[in-house]
Structures are given as C-alpha cells and as structure tokens.
Amino acid sequence: MLDDPGLYGPRRPLPLRVRPVPGESTGSFVNRLAHANGLSLAAFLDRVGQGEASAYAERVEKYPQSTEMYVNEAGLRYLAVLADRAAGLLQQDLPSLGAEHLLPGQEAAQWWWRWEPVAGHLVRYCPPCADAQGVGQTVWRMSPDSWQVCLQHGYWSDDSRGRGPDFVQLAELPETVTAQRVRQQLAEQWGPAGEELFADAFQVAVYWWTRMPDTARWVRRAWTAGLDAREMRAAPLVIYPEAAELARAMVDFEYAGQRDTAARTRWLESVEQLMSGWGVDAAEGRQALLVWLVRHRTEPPELGSPAGRPRLALARGHDRIASRTGSVSQRSCLTWQLGMAAADM
Question: Strands 68-71 and 50-52, how do they pair?
Fold first, then answer.
C-alpha cells in the first residue's frame, strides 16, 4: 500500500496496472485504468470517493474529449492506492492532479468531473507514440494550446470535437514541421523570451487569418490537411509557418536593441516584404504589427545573462501584459483571441 487511504478507502491496488502517459488528463487515465480491470467508470469511481459526474453520467464515459476529472487530497490518496503509484508520481504525470487544482475538503474523498478543464485543452495523443508504449486505448493529454505536434511521427492533433480527421499527418506539410522545430529552437536558445516572442508572432498571424482567411497558401494548407479553410480548427495549423518566421524577425528586432522611430520603420518595412512574399495583404495586416511595436518600444530592464544563453530581455510594455505560463494567447502581449470578430481585435 503506497499511501494510507483512510478508514474507508481502498486497501489494495487493482489487479492490473496502467502506466500514465506524461501530460495525460486524469479522466483519460482513470478511464483506461477502469477498463483494463473490467470495471465500468461508475464502478471505478465508487472506489475513489463521492462525486459529481454531471446530470448525464454516461456521457462522461462516452465523451472523454469534453470532460476532465478533479479530486481532493483524500481522493488523490485513494486513486494512488488503486493505481499502485505514489500520489506524488501521479501528480507529476497528470497535470490536473497538481496541488493548484485539488478540490477543497480534507475529510471525505471527493471527485468532480467537469465538462471543461480548469486550465488547458484536451488534445489527442499521437497514435504511434501510444502504440510504442503499448497503450491500447485512446489517450487524451492536457495541453496549454488547443493543438500539439509530434515531430517524431509528423502528427498534428488538436481538441476538435466536430467533423474532419482526428489527426493530420504532416508529410505533405513539411513547412509546419519546420515551424515547430523553429519554435523549439527559439525556446532552447532564448528561454522564456523566445517562447513569448513566438506567442506574439502567432497572435499577429491570428489577426491576419481572421481578416484574410482566403489567403492562398493558408487555403492550400487547409485543403491538404483535409480541413475547411475557414473553420477555426484550421487556423493554428495553416498559420504556423508564417508565425515561426515572424517570430525570428521579432527576435532580431529585440536583440538589436534599436527602438527609435527609424529602427521601427525599417523593421516594419522588412516584415511587410515578408508578408508580400507570403501573399498576405500588408495594408490589411500592418495594424497588428504596429500594436506589437507599441508594446515593445520601451527599453527592457537591465538583466544579467543566464548561464549558457545569450541575453534577451523583452520590453516593459510586453512584460506588463504577457504571462510566463499558459497558452500562446496568454504568453503574448497581444490579447486578442482566435474566434473573435475582426472588429473586436
């Protein structure tokens, strides 16, 4: 027994073990553990404590892509015993079990199955990755963004719950694979500043797509992926390459440290040339760039260089708005959201 589950809790693990996938949603893991042991979800939950699974409990089991499970401390201990895995290890693998997400209440074990996650998105796990780990069922992971890219197998997955493919294989969209590599390189080279500048660039591209979804290269990518060019699900996938290239241009601007009017004008003109090459109307899209330049026109505070990494501190105007964690929209100083009307941006 890994933890003391209390007077009324489970005393032994279930006969068959299931190993969690790092980043997996609690609901996904619990479903897999229950089914591996021949239990219905309701029968399994009876062993975890008292809880609420919405007015239609059967839909929770049927639609794991729409729901997430949360527990209090006692519920976590019960789950740890059933899974034969230390509570701390479960918390490392299952983000929704983190201390910040535990339900209140210290006495009786409690669980709550919400229709929407508290933080992040439920995104399908890459099937070849699951197969390589011997996972026989569908796995849903918690992701800060509504999509994930598997570079090893060239899969794009998202939180889509409607029509269309469950996954997009990127063999015919190599520019999207390259864009994901650029995003990772920026994070590795520049740390949080690189991640936040990618987020800024992505938000600018969201602004462009909202106004110009019929841009030829974006339509072509959507059709290649088997998606409708104007559905929001397609937007992150089709704008990814331009966002990555724009992010590199933003890094160059920040690293140069020249913020006077002439420097900002030169940078704007260089990006508008990029837009022209992409077939993006510069006159329609330059407003987003101007907003970004306003956020980044002031000098950053003086900071020391992190060990092994060149210094790149972002402007105060950026830091006052952007978050250090979360989705691309949260990590950006540009606050509009995908799905907003153009007039609201």
Answer: unpaired
Tokens linked to 216: 């030829």
Q: b vs e for 29-39, b when ≥16 Cβ sit within 10 Å of the residue's Cβ?
A: bbbbbbbebeb
With beta carbons less than 8 A apart as the criterion, state whether 106 and 38 touch. Answer: no
The DSSP symbol for 339 reads T
Among candidates 246, 336, 208, which has minimal Cα distance to 254?
A: 246
Phi, psi torsion values for 149, nearest 5 degrees: -120, 130
pTM tops 0.85, yes or no: yes
Region of 160 please: left (phi>0), alpha (psi -120 to 50) or beta: beta
30 in Cβ contact with 41 (< 8 Å): yes
Q: How would you list the strands of the sheet with 50-52, edge to edge?
A: 50-52, 110-114, 68-71
> Which contacts of 269-273 are long-range, i.e. CB under 8 A and separated by 24 or more positions?
271/246
- For residue 292, give Cα distances in angstroms to 53, 239, 253: 43, 18, 11
Contact 289, 271 (CB under 8 A): yes
Kind of pairing, strands 110-114 and 121-124?
A: unpaired
pLDDT tens digit sequence for 103-136: 998 778 888 888 888 889 999 999 899 998 888 8
Report which residue type is found at 264: R
CB 214 within 8 A of CB 229: yes
